[in-house]
Amino acid sequence: MQLKQGLKIALKNLRVNRSRSILTILGIVIGITAIILIVSTGKGAQNLILGQIQGFGSKMAVIIPGREPKGANPMSMLELLYSDSLKEKDLEALEKKGAVPNLMRIMPVVFGGVSASYGSEIYRLTVFGASDLAAEIYNIYPATGAFFTEEDIRANADAAVIGAKVKEELFGDSEALGQKIKIKGRNFRVVGILPQKGSGSMVNFDEAAFVPYTTAQYYLFGIKYYHRIAVEADEEKNVDQMISDIKTVLRSSHNITDPEKDDFYIQSQADMIKTVGTVTNILTMFLVCVAGVSLLVGGVGIMNIMLVSVTERTREIGLRKALGATKKDILVQFLLEAIALTLSGGLIGILMGSAFSFVVSLALSRLAGLTWTFNFPVFAAFLGLIVSALIGLGFGLYPAKKAAMKSPIEALRYE
């Protein structure tokens, strides 16, 4: 029997039992749809996060206190012991002329969640204690007003630059510039208001307020260390050399001779991109594996229906064999039916998954205000078709072999 003829017969038999065929491939359709949706949205999320990281500038790096995370437990007790390892003496050591030749900008950062109030309005926000360089480093220049100055930092001034959401929640349509908001019992004068960035930022500055880091340290958080130190190289090509020099300076400041005992680590933009990519890829693969369970269920369903089909068509099998069909012809025919079923499910799943992914990306970009782009996962779609065919082949083999082994005489006698 020719392959083309066998395929025509297989498709005809599937059309005869259309309702049963649709119900049979439902597991395959759901599985492929879920896989396409997960891979597409996972890629969209990855692109969104990476875009935010790249927006901070390719010359940026961040010094973080504590041991560098290893394995699946990034916040072990050992790391927490060194969470206060970045102090003012380290900042002064790094700022010394010639200590880090390629260092162009440096800014200590402290942060924490607090409540701010204005009149009867109260809003929970994130306070970032930073320097006046924050505007340049994070590219967040105030829409109205200005950032606090170096003099404000030295004077521990009660000045605040608030995000668009903070302004809306505390002041509504009223004028906020020049007014005072209360944070932990202290009155902070609003000197600047940031433009609305949306929740698509890796750090949501709309729900934050910037104050001088000295003020945040002494009066808001009561600490004498930094949560982060942001650094920027003079040129992108010098980032690695800058990081190497910073490690040398900090090890000297902390009396560390063995690099394995560092109580700090440095993340460059490349490191952050690699980490985010690894995490999102692992999460996506895990969810794909979960969705793949429905493919297995669908395969079992197809084998079950094919076995029923073999029983129902016993006389047909006997008649075909009596007319000269070989075991191979019967085997190929039933295999083609199983593969056609699963491939149909795979194609429908790809179309539905793509449609759902497009709707999700449209909703996130229009309704949530995210810079989310639709990504059609070509590899996942291709893999879905291959997997569908393999499921049809694997789970259809036993029923097809059972049909091929039937005796024509016994089959013709079957009632």
Write up this protein.
This protein has 415 residues and is an alpha+beta fold. The chain folds into two domains: 3-52 and 275-413, no CATH class; 57-268, no CATH class. 56% of the residues lie in helices and 16% in strands. The chain has 15 helices and ten strands. The protein has helices at 3-16, 18-24, 26-55, 77-80, 88-95, 134-138, 150-154, 164-171, 213-221, 239-253, 269-312, 314-322, 327-366, 378-404, 408-413; strands at 60-65, 103-118, 121-130, 144-145, 159-162, 180-183, 186-193, 208-212, 228-233, 264-268. A six-stranded mixed barrel has the order 2-3-8-5-7-6. β2 and β3 form a beta hairpin. The longest helix is centred in the last third of the chain and has 44 residues, at 269-312. The protein is elongated and about 100 Å long.
Spell out the key features of this protein.
415 residues, alpha+beta, 2 domains, six-stranded mixed beta barrel, 56% helix, elongated
How does the overall form come out from the CA principal axes? elongated
- Poorly predicted spans: 72-82
Q: Give a quick account of the main beta sheet: strands, pairing sense, barrel closure.
A: 6 strands, mixed, barrel
Number of strands: 10
List the topology elements.
Layout: H1 3-16, H2 18-24, H3 26-55, E1 60-65, H4 77-80, H5 88-95, E2 103-118, E3 121-130, H6 134-138, E4 144-145, H7 150-154, E5 159-162, H8 164-171, E6 180-183, E7 186-193, E8 208-212, H9 213-221, E9 228-233, H10 239-253, E10 264-268, H11 269-312, H12 314-322, H13 327-366, H14 378-404, H15 408-413
Helix pairs in contact: 1-13, 3-11, 3-13, 3-14, 5-10, 11-13, 11-14, 13-14
